[in-house]
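TA notes, week 10

Several of you asked for a full example with nothing omitted. So below is the full record: structure tokens for the whole chain, then the designed sequence directly under it. When grading your own attempts, check the secondary structure regions first.
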């Protein structure tokens, strides 16, 4: 059974759709940010503030590698920056299938503004966020699948993701 990695920008719905689809597929669900926090005993924001982004990225790669090596295969919601590092992309391509959840940046900006911005250290000015999203597209395009979510509701997005992943199930 391959691992399923959900990649894409902050606020694309990786955690929400990931946990929904894992339930439908009867597979375990893992949230990479949450695992990094548990491992560090610190929040994502605290790691960035106290140790910097480089330390966060180092932890991110280590935790990703550990989960894939030691836990039963399932669905992983990665962080928005995870797929931008080649080392992480190699771990993911060797272990399974990656899906880019591609949500228009206008939708993301509106969505995240009403969510928990405080927990997202890289959520700065709107202009910076838009520029970062643009720069990262070249990496997200390297995912095995590109799921354009447009204005899909959570339910519709879950169904579309399920239909994409279900054929990989080996049982
Ligand atoms: C980041 C996204 C965050 C988290 C960290 C860095 C990024 O995850 O990993 O704040 O580089 O885009 P979400 O995509 O779950 O917000």
């Amino acid at each position: 059974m391959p691992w399923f990695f959900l990649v894409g920008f902050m606020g694309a719905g990786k955690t929400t759709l990931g946990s929904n689809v894992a339930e439908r597929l009867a597979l375990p669900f893992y949230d990479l940010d949450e695992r990094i926090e548990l491992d560090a005993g610190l929040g994502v924001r605290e790691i960035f503030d106290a140790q910097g982004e480089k330390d966060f990225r180092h932890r991110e790669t280590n935790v990703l590698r550990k989960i894939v090596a030691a836990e039963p295969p399932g669905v992983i919601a990665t962080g928005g920056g995870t797929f931008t590092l080649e080392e992480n992309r190699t771990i993911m391509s060797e272990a399974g299938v990656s899906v880019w959840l591609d949500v228009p940046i206008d939708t993301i900006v509106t969505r995240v503004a009403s969510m928990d911005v405080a927990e997202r250290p890289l959520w700065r000015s709107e202009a910076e966020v838009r520029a970062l999203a643009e720069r990262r597209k070249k990496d997200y395009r390297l995912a095995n699948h590109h799921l354009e979510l447009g204005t899909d509701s959570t339910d519709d997005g879950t169904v579309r993701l399920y239909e994409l992943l279900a054929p990989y199930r080996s049982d």
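The first helix runs from residue 14 to 25. Use that as a sanity check on your answer.
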